[in-house]
Description:
Elements: E1 15-23, H1 26-35, H2 41-44, H3 46-52, H4 62-78, E2 83-92, E3 101-113, E4 120-131, E5 136-147, H5 149-154
Antiparallel strand pairs: 1-3, 2-5, 3-4, 4-5
Protein name: L-erythro-3-methylmalyl-CoA dehydratase
InterPro entries: HotDog_dom_sf, MC_hydratase, MCH/BMMD
GO molecular function, one term: lyase activity
Amino acid sequence: MQFGRYYEEFEVGAVYKHWPGKTVTEYDDHLFCLITMNHHPLHMDVNFAENTTEFGKNVVVGNYIYSLLLGMSVADVSGKAIANLEVESLRHVAPTFHGDTIYGETTVLDKTESKSKDDRGVVYVETIGYKQDGTIVCIFRRKVMVPKRSYGEARGGEQPGRPTPIPRG
């Protein structure tokens, strides 16, 4: 299975549908909130959410959804990345709730060869995340520096650093 792409493999207009989706649990949401010290009651306090918000229930913290989608896109987009250069925009356009399943897909918007090094280029992509009913919940655009094949070949090929198993004997 391929992990990431070389610069030459990206085509402007290509769409990568990331698989599988991820059902967001209360545990996922609360753990992310606690790890990142986001203790807003909208995410952590059922009573608060039921009695004081328009949603009537906890809303999953948006940065978890962004992080989830970013992670989903790695195998298709940035698995070979030299660097994540920029997150140009990030929009949370609809809420996510415990029990929703998130799916993602990324569209290649542009690609530019490096002016300073001939073994890499920059790929500009947009990732959207949507729920099981198709509602888009998150959209972000980012730029990723990815290697050309020559860069990968000079550093060990498709899976650099992978050891060779030694049979017991």
